[in-house]
Amino acid sequence: MEEKRECREDTLPLPPEVEKSLCRCGGIAGLVERLPEDETLARASALHRALADPLRLKVLAMLAVQPLCVCVIKAVLGIADSKLSYHLGVLRKAGLIAGEAQGNWIVYRLTDDGAAWAARPGMSHDDRSDTVDAERSRPAAGRRSRTSAE
Amino acid sequence: MEEKRECREDTLPLPPEVEKSLCRCGGIAGLVERLPEDETLARASALHRALADPLRLKVLAMLAVQPLCVCVIKAVLGIADSKLSYHLGVLRKAGLIAGEAQGNWIVYRLTDDGAAWAARPGMSHDDRSDTVDAERSRPAAGRRSRTSAE
DNA sequence: ACATTAGTTCAAAATAATTTGAATTAGAGG
DNA sequence: CCTCTAATTCAAATTATTTTGAACTAATGT
User: Fold this and answer.
1) Which of A55, A46, B50 is nearest to A63 (CA)?
2) Do the chains contact at A61 and B68, CB–CB below 8 Å?
3) How confident is residue B88, by pLDDT bands cut at 50, 70 and 90?
4) Any long-range contacts for A83-90 (C-beta under 8 Å, 24+ apart)?
């Protein structure tokens, strides 16, 4: 039952730079230990999925200004009832917003989680738009495929 | 050319609570002015879309430990080459990681953006898993549909 | 009771993202 | 030159998300 951590990944040839640092962190086994649990990853990715749509981000931005009933949100976005309802449902199920009935209306507001995300950088009203794009994305800067270009 | 901002949204009956605060912020027009531009929303949602997958978050977590070649990432995740390549492509196009050729290998590392996101709460290794869930999501707490339940 | 308004739900259709496996490229080494 | 390995690309198949329009529910007012 020796648990002394082996340094070399004997079964896998590696680039020297990677092998050295991987060695210092306990090899592949050591690396794996440092990763979040699968459930943590699942929850985080689900959250991002809820935020992965411009309409939904716009709804969050609106609710960051003040609580609103569905009819106002609809008036601003100019989309069909059922479509809006779908997107509100996505945000609600993700725990980012909550709705409360008021007479014949439903007033939605941000939850604490929702408020935290609505305040995130890249979302504020007066945000840089630098457009560094292009030059981004390419397999490995000078290797593989002439067929590049997006 | 009067630009005095009207308070009442005459065309749209609203719940009193909403109407009052909407009034204070310049009505629907005032609300719209406070929203991020569409391009900002598009960029932010694209970013979240890249983060909206557990495998990809795991890759970010791995690269947060140290730069790695594709073969090590593959060994940890245990998925097919082409599948991994696809996900690396998504992260690369989102500007979260970058790859550099080293001999026959490609070593990927986090970009500054990638490092910022990998460090985000909800992603750290020893993170709470509280599971408040259930009780979340429901149209409006006591209105509409008996057909509830997810 | 009836009609209206505000929102949700459902199922089908349209789109988009992901997975799979085969083909391909490029570097290393014999 | 040939082969091996590392990794990417492509196209087809699968799966997930989004959109649409019609049907529905609940509250409000008459």
Assistant:
1) A55
2) no
3) very high
4) A87/A53, A87/A55, A87/A56, A87/A59, A88/A59, A89/B137, A90/A50, A90/A53, A90/A56
- The predicted pLDDT at position B6 comes to 59
Using CA atoms, how far apart are residues A56 and B41, in angstroms rounded to an integer?
9
pLDDT in tens, A130-149: 444 445 566 775 555 543 33
Cβ(B15)–Cβ(A103) below 8 Å: yes
Residue among A124, A120, A74 nearest B40 (CA): A124
CA distance A146 to chain B (A): 15
B11 CB-near residues (< 8 Å, 6+ apart): none
Q: Which two tokens stand for residue A103?
A: 């007479």
Residue range A11-46, pLDDT digits in tens: 789 999 999 999 998 999 999 999 999 999 999 999
ipTM of this model?
0.88
Residues of A in contact with B143 (CB under 8 A): 101, 106
Measured CA to CA, the distance from residue A118 to residue B4 in angstroms comes to: 30
- Set of chain B residues whose Cβ sits within 8 Å of the Cβ of A98: 141
